[in-house]
From TrEMBL:
Keywords: Hydrolase. This is AB hydrolase-1 domain-containing protein. It comes from Capronia coronata CBS 617.96. GO terms for molecular function: peptidase activity. Residues 34-281 form the AB hydrolase-1 domain.
């Protein structure tokens, strides 16, 4: 963030009493800058920390809004943890921020929510940024589970991983144990697994909280119903997809399928990245996003 800028922290209350922990990166009291909202992944595990680390570089040009989704981090653990409710929270935050339209960025599970939002509220968007997504919520978790169980990078407890990806975790400790054993799985091949952090989180060591109820809702209830393949053509805004060549969770083929279905989409593959190009190749990630934003005229978007 540029020298002299600040981060504004707010608690924003939803109409059902749920309080969301929200940060606006960069000081713009006049609200003259366009708004960018970035969604974190890993429900019940991740927080605003990953999108804050990934998108702070844009805070000179945008009001960058990041937050802990309900059921994650410091925000209230007030259900339901459904796509419909999470999307309503996005709409509430858009209105709270005073923006008629904005850029929406979603990472991993946040990309699934971003796809659903773009299909239902596309008139509210200038653009869409997706990192690590799939369009078919039935096939996606089964494919990643198959990759885990055949991987030579991890020694995973099979039954526990089945519980993780089917949304049937026993408790919060079961959730933590399942993620701990998966750390090397998320990294590109050349990364030292001893330095790998948890997916979607820059705070893993000793401070991340695990909420299995949120994860269970996401993968036990939402994912079996998530299938946007036949509706991708409804997304009319410019869309950027980024994916790591070595992403074992949301592989290149999944992003390619989405790019093929969205009329105005650009796919960029990061050759030295796993599931998190923003942290695996940060300089290139920032350059790719900056170039795309300029090329699409989003620094001074139309009203």
């Amino acid at each position: 963030m540029a020298e002299g800028q600040t981060t504004t922290v707010s608690w924003v209350e939803m109409e059902d009493g749920c309080r969301l922990y929200v940060k606006i990166l960069g000081d713009d009291w006049t609200r003259s800058k366009p708004l960018l909202i970035s969604l974190h992944g890993a429900p019940g595990l991740s927080t605003h920390a990953e999108p804050e680390a990934s998108y702070t570089f844009l805070s000179d040009a945008f009001r960058v809004l990041v937050y802990d989704a309900r059921g994650s981090g410091a925000s209230s653990h007030t259900g339901p943890y459904t796509h419909e409710r999470w999307i309503k929270d996005i709409e509430n935050l858009r209105q709270w921020a005073g923006a008629e339209r904005f850029i929406l960025a979603g990472a991993s599970y946040g990309a699934f929510l971003a796809l659903d939002y773009a299909i239902s509220h596309g008139d509210r968007l200038y653009g869409l940024i997706l990192r690590g997504a799939w369009a078919n919520g039935k096939f996606g978790p089964m494919n990643v589970l198959a990759n885990i169980l055949t991987s030579n990078k991890v020694q995973a407890d099979r039954a526990r991983q089945v519980r993780l990806w089917s949304g049937t975790l026993i408790d919060d400790q079961d959730f933590e144990d399942s993620i701990q054993e998966l750390l090397p799985f998320y990294a590109p091949p050349e990364t030292d697994s001893s330095t790998t952090t948890a997916p979607e989180s820059t705070e893993f060591r000793g401070s991340v909280k695990f909420y299995s109820a949120t994860q269970n809702s996401a993968f036990g209830e939402n994912m079996p119903r998530f299938d946007v393949r036949s509706r991708l053509h409804l997304i009319e805004v410019p869309t950027l997809l980024v994916v790591g060549r070595h992403d074992n969770v949301t592989p290149v083929t999944a992003s390619q399928e989405i790019a093929n279905g969205i009329p105005h989409a650009k796919l960029v593959i990061f050759e030295h990245s796993g599931h998190s190009p923003a942290s695996d190749e940060p300089e290139r990630f920032e350059q790719v996003l900056s170039d795309w934003i300029k090329a699409e005229g989003m620094l001074n978007p139309r009203p």
